[in-house]
Amino acid sequence: MPQLLASGAETAAFAERLGEGTGPVAVDTERASGYRYSGRAYLVQVRRAGVGSALIDPTEAGPLDALARALNPLEWVLHSADQDLPCLAEIGLHPAALFDTELAGRLLNQGKVNLAAMVEREFGLLLAKQHGAADWSRRPLPADWLNYAALDVELLVELRDALSDQLRAQGKSEWARQEFEHIRTAPPPAPRPDRWRKTSGIHKVRARRRLAAVRALWTARDALAESLDRAPGRVLPDSAIVEAALADPATVGELRALKVFGGPRQRKRSALWLDALAEARALPDSALPPQRPAGGIPPAGRWPAARPEAADRLAVARETVAALAEANDLPAENVLEPRVLRELCWNWGEIPSGDGADAGAESLARIDSLLHSAGARDWQCEITAEALADAFRQHARN
């Protein structure tokens, strides 16, 4: 097992050795999801042929400038890169090129694409996977945790090489290149509006003022969780937010009579939660949140009532994509993301009139434009646009 590097000098020395290696570099991180509010990396694992592996503690190693200079110009191999790239960017690490082994497995339609399943399938080896959900902010890190973390990069480059050969054999190398580049260059996601609406169990809350109570409690919890750097669910569970919003307690006694709020941790925060509830209670009707968020595309289940022609079009599009997925040996969600398909069908508008070449070209151009604007890659548009245009026009004629 490689030594844990927990100082700037140790990390800089390893960074200097990285230049002596060859080929791409395997990279992974360990975070403390479910324990901490932030998504920061608490451990960075790196491995390159000719150099070996290193486990780096970014919370102790200080600025990682030397590591960034050595690592950033290289091709990185990650598994489920979109999970790791944001926290790596926070510490100044950005790949010049990328290979995502999980995404490669999806493009090869391999079914199970978690790292352990793929390593077993390709190499007949079993990975120890028992510490993935551990609290990686803990210090010192136990030796068996570090061993688990080191194994995550042990065979990533070899897995990349095997998958690259398979992608080439199936004629999917360019598809994979576009997918990897899409992930590598994706901007940080914009903050989602109305994040409080994702509160688990919110479907039980119907009245707008009770929704305002959920919002106020969620906002108070989020601010406290951020200040403590603690996962929001560990500050106050979603179920307690919903229960308090529905019960609307106005006194300390009424609040503490609720299941979670009577516990020792919540008793000292009674004033915070009561203030949030009072804030919601005092809002004028005009400031109450709507029962459903305004704007955007509604859930597909509401389409038959809201826009039945779009619901019919979505059914046709899903059938078309399923057929294309089978023909190209791909999962349907990799042919076109469900979100992209919904945006296309909702925003389609009227079918171009006529049956001639001009109308067909107009349909194809419109679909291609809508797909690209929704984030579809060139290869996805190339294999789907014409089939979708034909399916839509056939459906309109029927």
TrEMBL record:
It holds the Pfam family DNA_pol_A_exoN. SUPFAM superfamilies: HRDC-like, Ribonuclease H-like. Residues 207-287 form the HRDC domain. SMART domains: 35EXOc, HRDC. It comes from the Bacteria. InterPro entries: 3'-5'_exonuclease_dom, Exo_C, HRDC-like_sf, HRDC_dom, HRDC_dom_sf, RNase_D-like, RNaseH-like_sf, RNaseH_sf. Residues 284-304 are annotated as: Disordered. This is Ribonuclease D. It comes from Tomitella cavernea.
